[in-house]
Amino acid sequence: MKNDSLYMDAILPVIDSYIDEKQKVMQTVDQSPTNYFTCETTKSRRQWPQILELMTMVGHQEPLYRRLNNVIRERFLKSADAIYCSLRMELVMSAHDLNIESVIRSDPCHDLAWCLDACVRDKHLDAQQTIKLKNILESTKKTKAEVIGDLAMIAGDAHVIHFLCSMAIKVLRDSALHATGQLPRELVPLQLLLRLLSFGASAH
């Protein structure tokens, strides 16, 4: 890419700022009726100045977006910092909010991110979303390793992990309350949730 060094000079400080600010939020210990997972809506997280600034730099240029995601992936692999998973998630959903078609069409993570974002937002996983998520997981068997890694980063977003764990506990609790007599391994909804959790955990 032409002027790659200039592009790096522009995006790296913004990425660093995002990571630093996210870490501060995660480490906040002040008493509050909310916590890291409830203090912001899914949409407000995509309104962070750093996200908007990065998307402004990318514009409608798919090569710039791809280069940005490559940097995020490389940094995640080096650091194992899951905040990079959140950054990956929020960028693709920001492109969705901004209706940047060229970027959306080029990102193989869009459908997974869009579906999981709706689940996190609504705190619910319906039948249609269940089918879609199953199909996405099945499709990874024929997908390039690099794309699988990016998809796993989406599933590794802290808010997604929190949602999946919360849903898994709910499924187990409901099963116990209704005395279904089923073992956890026999609960079909739980199987999908655990597959997604495992997928996200395999991102690094």
TrEMBL record:
Highest taxon above the source species: Eukaryota
GO biological process: negative regulation of transcription elongation by RNA polymerase II
InterPro entries linked: COBRA1
Organism, as annotated: Wuchereria bancrofti
Pfam families: COBRA1
Name of the protein described by the UniProt record: Uncharacterized protein
Lineage: Eukaryota, Metazoa, Ecdysozoa, Nematoda, Chromadorea
GO cellular component terms listed in the entry, alphabetical order: NELF complex
